[in-house]
Amino acid sequence: MTPWTRPWTLFIGGLLLLHFVLRLGFGLGKGMPDLLTAAALLGAMRLRPPGAAALGLAVGIINDAASFNAFGATGFALAVVAALGALSREYFEGSSPIFVLAYLVLGSWLSQAIARVLGRGPDGPAPYLLSGRALLIAAYTGVAGILLLSAYRGVTRERI
Amino acid sequence: MADFEGGRTGRGRRAAWTAGILLLALFFIFLPAQYQAPVRSALRATVMRPFIALQARLASARPGGSELAAVRAQRDSLVALLASQAALVEENRRLRHALGLHERIGERFIPARVLRVGLDGAESTFLIDVGAQHGVAVGSPVLAVGGLLGVVREVSGATAQAIDWTHPEFRASAMTDDGVAYGIVEPRAGVAREEDVLLLTGAPFHVEIGPGRRILTSGRGDLYPRGVPIGTVVGMQDADTGWRKSFIVAPAVRPEGLTHVLVGVGLTGGLDLTDAWLPPEASDTTLPALPLMVPESTTVVVPPDTAGSAGRP
């Protein structure tokens, strides 16, 4: 497993900051990609499952501060997918862009599915997940994540 | 020394830690609502505060401000026009005083700026830049130019969080504008958010409510003032076992593009705002009847004019 470095901390922290600045600070909302999930999933790639779950829970609970639809749903969902993501690294060691893209898309979709099942949002889980919107959001998250990760790798020359 | 990196012991410990963190995450979900609220408030007041403040600052600087100035200028022009018709204005004033309208309404609405949350889990909710220190309380109605927008659900010092009518928990006691039928209005989700509409449920079976009939708040339950427009009937949804009917209602206000709202403070039961939203043909003046109480550091919101036409993005 690639060690957690200081530049990686700045990268993950930067993703989280960017997420809240764009979505909340600039009020752009869901027009912007879900960099919160991307940060949790990418962070999980260099963490053991407990650390990844803690990261997912922490950033998810901060996100849930504005939610009384289902407080804690994002925290739980991100904790689960981050832990699964970290666990998956013990079995799959892919670092190609396609692999990471698939990892981000699947993780984002799973995170939305868990959050919806826990009752978040004005519509129920099934209509939302079946409408294709969840997959579209997951793809958007994956593409944004892979682009930002490529930029990071270009600057730091670190491998994943 | 514990084998934390590998081996059976290490894996067991990692699994135990992971399970513990997931249990902690579940704990937050099942925390009673009264205990969740302080946690949310604390996070909003600390970690999220810079981002909320950034949006508030940008909102005051963006073109909306100049749009507001333009609308204000238009209103001032209308005021000047009406002032030239002094006799009519004086007659209106006397009639209003005679009806005791001003006394009935009272200065119970303050303008507020809408801040978009834009985060997952905050769908159908929005922040406003007035809070407990301005007199806003849980249950305060939130009105927009076209009519009812939502209700405040959580209040902190200088901000509050409210739900709009698309939220699944939104309900309002409603009536037709002729007062013949009463019922409860609730949201009905569309495939896309833009397709969300309202549903008037519980209307008596024998009552015919035709398309175009305006639906207003009835004031029952004293949560919302009476007479605030909710929407217009566009058709019948279904008949419930031959006793009740449900009607689809096109909302008077769409929440997507709103930037400013009015928030009720210190409202008591029995408030009737029907006259503030009279249809154009019935209105005796273009000037609004809804009074504003303007707190410091907030922008004056252009008050309601006529039903339906305004308030839509």
Indicate the topology.
The complex is a heterodimer of chains A (160) and B (313).
Chain A: H1 6-25, H2 35-44, H3 49-63, H4 73-88, H5 97-117, H6 125-130, H7 133-156
Helix pairs in contact in A: 1-2, 2-3, 2-4, 2-5, 2-7, 3-4, 4-5, 5-7
Chain B: H1 7-30, H2 33-45, H3 49-61, H4 64-84, H5 86-99, H6 101-105, E1 109-115, E2 125-128, E3 141-144, E4 147-155, E5 160-164, E6 172-176, E7 182-188, E8 197-204, E9 214-217, E10 229-240, E11 244-251, E12 260-264
Antiparallel strand pairs in B: 1-2, 1-12, 2-5, 3-4, 3-12, 4-5, 6-7, 6-9, 7-8, 8-11, 9-10, 10-11
Profile the largest sheet of chain B: 6 strands, antiparallel, barrel
- For the record, give the distance between the C-alpha atoms at the N and C termini of chain B, rounded to a whole number: 65 Å
The largest interface is: A-B, 48 and 53 residues
Q: Which residue ranges of chain B are poorly predicted, with pLDDT under 50 across at least 5 consecutive positions?
A: 97-105, 282-313
CATH architectural designation of the largest domain in chain B: Beta Barrel
What does this structure look like?
By secondary structure, chain A is mainly α. Chain A has one domain. Helix content of chain A is 70%, strand content 0%. Chain A has 7 helices and no strands. Chain A has helices at 6-25, 35-44, 49-63, 73-88, 97-117, 125-130, 133-156. The radius of gyration of chain A is 15 Å and the shape is globular. The model of chain A has no long low-confidence stretch (mean pLDDT 87). The longest helix of chain B has 24 residues, at 7-30. By secondary structure, chain B is α+β, with helices and mostly antiparallel strands. Mean pLDDT of chain B is 75; it is low at 97-105 and 282-313. In chain B, 29% of the residues lie in helices and 25% in strands. Chain B is globular. Chain B folds into 2 domains: 49-168 and 254-277, Rod shape-determining protein MreC, domain 1 (Thrombin, subunit H, Beta Barrel), CATH 2.40.10.340; 172-251, Rod shape-determining protein MreC, domain 2 (Thrombin, subunit H), CATH 2.40.10.350. A 6-stranded antiparallel beta barrel of chain B has the order 1-2-5-4-3-12. In chain B, strands 6-7-8-11-10-9 form a 6-stranded antiparallel beta barrel. Classes of the chains: A mainly alpha (160), B alpha+beta (313).
